[in-house]
Each structure stands twice: as C-alpha cells, then as structure tokens.
Amino acid sequence: MGNKTIETDSDVAAFLAAVEPPERREDGERLVALMQTVSGQPPRLWGSSIIGFGSYHYRYDSGREGDASRIAFSPRKAELVLYLSGLADEDCVPLGKHKRGKGCLYIKRLSGIDMAVLEALIVQSWNHMESAYPA
Question: What positions does the domain YdhG-like occupy (predicted)?
C-alpha cells in the first residue's frame, strides 16, 4: 500500500483561492511566502490539502518508505496546521497562542502569534530536516 499523501501537480494558487474563511486563505498566502523564502523551494500540493516545500525520502526500520515534504502546512477550516520537525515544546512557548501535536503546530490565526518567532521555528525545522535527510 502506498502513501496517501503524495506530491501532486495541482495548482497551489487555485487551491488557496478556494480556502475559506477569507482570513484562513490570507494566512495561507502569508505562510506560502514565508516558507518559500526560508526554503528557497516552490510550494507544491501534497495530497489534496497540504502545501509543502522541498522533499525527502524516508525509510523506517519496519521497511516502510516514501517521500514527504521537508516543511508544510494545511489551511484547514478550523485552524492552520504546520508540519514542522525538530522542535521542542519550549521552542514554541514565545510563539503566542498555539497548540502542539506530534510534529504539528496548530494556530488559529497568524494575527495571534509572533511572526518573528514563527519564522525562526520554520528555519529551525528546515535546518533540522536538512541535517537529518541531506539532499
């Protein structure tokens, strides 16, 4: 069985244009610009709703392997979900209002967080992935 979330050729701008509510769409556009600047990579749609930058190949001890984006986010209806690796809970404290999950950062709106801290976290995650999975 293959991975459900694979890189597609879908149009990122068209996907974002359809995101609701409008504030989520605007936040998504800001995140695309920020993550593209940090990564130097163009945005690509992974699956039907994840915008990722860069990619890497992984192989688990179980033998399962695949490709994934190095950093990514999804502008979901309820909140933004950022897929960032290599962060500790304490790294995120100065960010502002957010929730954490395993490898995920949940943010209701960018207006409620410190954008300089978010940029530093994205840089930290990108560098972690470059170190863990060199190109």
Answer: 24-124
